[in-house]
Amino acid sequence: MGHIISVGMGKGGVGKTTTCSTLADILSEAGHKVLGIDFDPQGNFTQMVTRQSLFDFEDRTIFEAMKSRDPRPYIHRVRENFDLIPADDYLAYLSKYLYTEYDGHPYRLLAETIGLLKDEYDFIFIDLPPNLGDQTLNGLAASDFTIAVFQPEPFCFDGLLRYEETVELIQENINPNLKFLGVITSMMDSVAAIDEAIYQKAKNHYNDLLFDTVIKRRARIKEYSLIGLKKETAKDRITLAPYISLVKELMDRVQKEAVR
Fold first, then answer.
1. Are the CB atoms for 104 and 56 separated by under 8 Å?
2. What's the pLDDT tens digit per position in 212-259?
3. Which of 59, 134, 139, 158 is the right S-S partner for 6, CB 3.0 to 4.6 Å?
4. Gap between the Cα atoms of 64 and 86, Å rounded
5. Domains in the chain, ordered, with CATH?
6. Alpha helices (H) in 174-218, listed in sequence order
7. Is the whole-model pTM more than 0.90?
């Protein structure tokens, strides 16, 4: 049985989608069967891993999969071991659908939909939107684990606290088996004193929940959002080295939590 891991944050622009897609990519290349679920109406995860327009996936997205309760027809093969269920801006209508047409619990629809696939993949990653609305609540309710991606800057620390509160809300009321796997530090400016100060604040608050690996701010990472993940040059290998370390940490945490 696979592990469903949601990646979220209560604020945008922190490198969440890049982190989620890179983790999925590295694990799939290592031989694990991976499914990515884009659960953000912006569709950035879809664009990053497919290099295609969202218009190419019209009527073939996670929203249609949820409405039909059958995800299989909506799976897009990215490459061997890496599949995707795309999203587009119509996912923004999820709330309306949940409260006017769906007859079940409004936070359990995604779990009902993707639960059918859990035995078919080693890892299922859900890229959550940068808010704490119905998409995030559905994503957390469907997950075994969740990870927060944190950029060390003032507003993001507040967003991290709100995300943690949302995770606790779902644990208490919807999904008691959900485990908060930890906090990934992303886009850290190694020469900015404010970044270091806020990183230390997060370290003091979250202790062992903070992943040891820190993703530093690099121009190449920003380029990946436009050109897709590249691994051909020495610059790429240097850029991706922290993500490879992060995958090892992730695997260790999943294995430890899975046996508890």
1. no
2. 999 887 656 666 666 666 676 667 777 788 899 999 999 999 998 877
3. 139
4. 10
5. 3-254 (3.40.50.300)
6. 193-206
7. yes
φ and ψ of 237, to 5 deg: -65, -40
> How far is residue 204's CA from residue 196's CA, in Å, rounded to a whole number?
12
What does the chain come to in residues? 260
pLDDT reported for residue 226? 63
Strand-strand pairing, 82-85 and 76-79: antiparallel
Give the strand order in the sheet containing 179-188.
76-79, 82-85, 34-38, 123-127, 3-8, 145-150, 179-188, 210-216
Alpha helix ranges (H) inside 58-105: 62-68, 94-100
The rounded distance, in Å, linking the Cα atoms of 207 and 111 is 30
Using DSSP's 3-state secondary structure scheme, residue 186 falls into strand
